[in-house]
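Q: I have 499 residues here and want to know how they pack in 3D. Can you give me a structure?
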Amino acid sequence: MRRTRPGRLAASLARAGLIAAVGAVTLGAAHQQPAGDPATSVGDLRFHAAAVPFRHGTREARAEFSIRVPYQEIRFAPDGDRYSAKLRLTVQMWNSAGKRAGFLQREANLQSTDLAATTDSLLGEVYELGLAVPPGKYTYRVLVEDMSVGRQGFVYQMQKQKLQGEVNGRIDLGEWLFHDPALSGLEFAWEVGAGEEGSPFRKGPYDVKPQPSAYFGHFQDAVSVYYELYDAPPPAEGRAYTLAAGILNAAGDTVFTSVDSLRVTEGSAWPHAMGIDVSQFPAGHYTMGLSLQDGGGHELARSQGTFELLWSLDSWGADAADFYEVTAATLLPSDSSEVFRHLSMGEKERWIERIWRIADPTPDTGDNESREEFRRRVDYANAHYSIIERGMFSDRGRVYIRYGEPDDIKIERVPVAGKTLGYALGDQIPKSSKQEVTDTRSGVADSRAYEIWTYDMRGKELRPRFGMNEISGGIKFVFTDDQGYGEYTLKYSSTTGIH
């Protein structure tokens, strides 16, 4: 398994030749986040965003937002001898009464001399925006817009909306943050190095490159975290603390512990960072906790955060969440598939890897033929059935991925008399189903294009399911193009497996 160290990624960034010019424009909750992955955006543009609580002076809190937009999601256009794009980032916060408490907007002009870099899904633009607010609990919205591309759809075009995505969440900036002593929230970072003059990621003596998704593993096998310690000014001789760190897996088992000594000599806020080698941990969802203690081992303050370990390349793709959703729908029963949707990305990978091991027809070899066939089917569906949405989510795509190539396909793009759907079906499906499928409710002849797919027995399922009443008679699916633009809808299925 190849794992790229931070230095290797940094070199890739340098080679990409990407330049971000960010201009700040300070101007005077709606969608549900993906289940199990609150840092991932919803909408047309995929990105990750996270909010971390810090102090901002003696009686104000600061919500620090980190945002990473993969280059693959940004629409670069030729601009002379380079490629250009423009993003707009907006952060808003509302207090518990629903009143807007903060608003910040920035625009970023991007330029690249490397076309390949503009389609990379791992590299990306990383930004940090902070809002200072009174102590309390808040909801927030992070909106990223691609100013070069309009949203699809008549209403969006009338409103001149741009391609966009958003992350919605909650952040607790309450009184706990102002107890003495206290620990800030944990900011997970791709890497933490020595502070560089002029760096937008400079925090005290550190340069902290945030990782808002909190994804680690294949490309970065060390988890770095930045946090701040707050307390009243120490006496002249200084003040000592003990910091106990621990990591728990999803089952609640402790997989890592460490104890370190901290000493402060002046001031009331102290930046700290730590890194942990996780190269021997399996994929999954993990919780890191920090406990600040006195010399007697009594806890004075606590902070924690969660991160994901992802070792499979599938988990790092821009469409990883969608790919895993299709995988689960193909391999798992419907009840288990729903449970799967609410897992974090690390736990999804762990589940999927275990399922593929079970489905491997030749476990003693290095190849998993079932998994390779699944990838081929997904690629085929995306290549042949993508109209409004990606082909793997279309009705024909779902059937193809589950059962493979049909044993027989009857296609009529422009049905004429004697070749309409009703004639083609004959008595192949129950009469009641046929009436429902062929009833256009328009009072005119049924001229819809259609496809009838027939599988002998159970088709070519990657993980066969049970249903004796379906095995002997084969399986049949009927699709119709109701709107006439090539998007075929499943109208009839003889199996309970797909609806």
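Q: Anything worth noting?
A: The chain has two domains: 6-310, 386-493. Confidence is low (pLDDT under 50) at residues 1-32, 153-159, 466-471.
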